[in-house]
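Q: Hi! First time doing this. I have a protein sequence and I read that you can turn it into a structure. Is that right? Here it is:
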Amino acid sequence: MRDTAIAVVLLACLIVGCEDGAGDTGEEPAVAEEGRIAQDPTPPDSLPPAVLGAGPAPGGVPVHYFDEDSATTGYLALPAGDGPFPGVILIHEWDGLVDRIRQVADALAAEGYAALAADVYSGRTGSNAEENLALVNETVVDSARLVRNLDAAARYLREHPATTGRIATIGWCFGGGIALSYALGGETHEGTAMFYGRIITDPERLDALDHELYGTFAGNDRDIPADEVDRFVGALREAGVENDVHIYDDVEHGFWLYVDRDPARNREPARDAWQRLKAYLVRTIR
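A: Yes, that's right. Below is the predicted 3D structure, encoded as structure tokens:
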């Protein structure tokens, strides 16, 4: 029954409005040891370079966390220091696990989180809309395997000696919808953050959420209009689910992960969303 319910939600969360783009890479980050990222939190008025198109080359390490499939290759970034640290699972967009996501994992490690970027495409990435959509469709059709993948990621982090065992998921676009669906039927975790992912507005389904939900949406998103987000918030409230959901006016879908596409318009709302996300992680998994 759980897998059937997840499949329905995953199909509801499917989004085809995502855009391509891997992050730029530059100089190597400060790394204490292999896979360890020097802790250097961003100031309150700043954004991580990763979302500005100026992120350094990823400093973490590839990991094979899903025993069922040797081609699945996640990416682990750990903070420097002894820990233990709370964990975050990053769920990529529709193009797969690209460097922009790895760079965000490094940014979260710099904030003091053990960050595991999951790979739900068996090591593959797409280079255009047709390829991306084919990967999305293949993934959501086998919803049971997707859940097993993320369950394995959660177990990997919980059992890692550098972690506290408290975990939140963070997803963007396709990954944001997956994060929501996983919260409704995957392995228990303590937080869910979604950035402009597909939503559902049925309070009976949302009643399965047992933790506060973070959501960031764009006022000019053609695929997820503001009135639909309002219905989502209403359904969360009806289900008794605490939430921090915000719609940022005058920005497009993808504004946070790719601030560099329109920095004049995106920077300030992205900065606010980043501060909200950091506060959310502190109160849910610290």
